[in-house]
Structure formats: structure tokens, C-alpha cells
Amino acid sequence: MTEDTKVPFFEVRDGVKVIVRPMTGDEARVIFPYRPLSKTVESNFGGDQDYDDICMLINRIAMRCKMCQAPTKKEHLENGTCPDCDGRSERSGTDPHKRS
């Protein structure tokens, strides 16, 4: 598959970008540049200064988003998808596609 024929990761629905196909962690880092640059925390909806992502996954407090693979607290997942991927972040006023 050439660069010209690649299927985009997102489409605009109701004015927000919604992820429409799964991606790797590296691809998610490019799509969502506002996420923390940390080895222990991959998104704003996973670990924090007290519990890193691995700890949350082991203790079943978090699951990986089915689209971007970022560890996300179960309370933030809807149908297995994190707020960045299904557009909830953008609807709440945060643009996950721009570096803050």
C-alpha cells in the first residue's frame, strides 16, 4: 500500500474527529500530540503520578482502548474506546490533535 492509498485514521462526525480504525501506539502518538511524553503514562485517561499505566492494567483498573491501544481507566471507556478516539475530548473543549 503506498502513501497515497492509505486509509485515514479518523473522519469528521458531528464536527469532531472520530477514530475509525485501530492504530499502533506510535501512530497514536502522531495523531494525539497533546498526550504526555512519559514512559509510564500514555494518555490523560490512564495512569498518573501515583499509579502508572502498567500498574493500572495489572490491577484491572484500566484497559487498553481498542482504537489507540492507550491504557485507559475503565470509567473513561465507552464501548472499549477512550474519549480521544470517540470525540468526547473534543466535544469537552480539548483538541487532542494539537500540541498544548
Structural description of this entry:
- This protein is of the alpha+beta class and 100 residues long.
- The chain has one domain.
- The chain has four helices and four strands, in the order ββααββαα.
- A two-stranded antiparallel ribbon has the order 1-2. Strands 3-4 form a two-stranded antiparallel ribbon.
- A hairpin with a 2-residue loop joins strand 1 and strand 2.
- The radius of gyration is 13 Å and the shape is globular.
- The termini are far apart.
Distance between the termini: 33 Å
Give the fraction of residues assigned to helices.
10-25%
Largest sheet: 2 strands, antiparallel
Radius of gyration: 13 Å
Mean of the pLDDT scores? 86
Which oligomeric form is depicted? Answer: single chain
Task: Tell me what portion of residues adopts beta-strand conformation.
Answer: 5-15%
Q: What's the overall geometry?
A: globular
Element order, helices and strands? EEHHEEHH
**DSSP summary, beta strand count:** 4
Question: In DSSP terms, counting alpha (H) and pi (I) runs of 4 or more, how many helices?
Answer: 4
Structural class category: alpha+beta
Whole-number tally of structural domains: 1
Spatial sequence of strands, sheet with the most strands: 1-2
Question: What ranges have pLDDT less than 50 throughout 5 or more consecutive residues?
Answer: none
